[in-house]
């Protein structure tokens, strides 16, 4: 979506690093959270070989999409996620410091594993 000359769009293809978790807001809205691992080029090692770094991204899938993700995804699932960046901030209750976290709020999740293939 283009809003006044800007674009906030993320597309990732990767693997789930753990089991998805579902939480419910006081309003009753469900949110499914999961982390997706993607690879990117890193530096070269001592022998000149290319290394790869793993990037972990937290995904939030809301409402019905979240329900489907909770039912279908598991650790190791391969997915394509399209969404937008969302940053929330809060005050840490223990330290009083301001904290923030940026996540991808999913608009689309494509399951890249064969359906019913729970190996």
TrEMBL record:
The keyword Zinc does not apply. InterPro entries: NA-bd_OB-fold, Primosome_PriB/ssb, ssDNA-bd. It comes from the Bacteria. SUPFAM superfamilies: Nucleic acid-binding proteins. Homotetramer. PANTHER family: SINGLE-STRANDED DNA-BINDING PROTEIN. NCBIfam families: ssb. This is Single-stranded DNA-binding protein. The gene is ssb_1.
